# Entry
Amino acid sequence: ETALTWAPINSMSVVQKLGAQAGLLGSDAINQFLATAPADYIAKEFKG
# Structure
């Protein structure tokens, strides 16, 4: 579940910078985003 919540945040940051590594976030920065995330920002099972 942790990876499923961290990945979209990290990719959001990466696509804003030039180069694949320029926008990578550390765990502190990701946790700051998660602290202000909406309550419904949780990993859910996809039943398709």
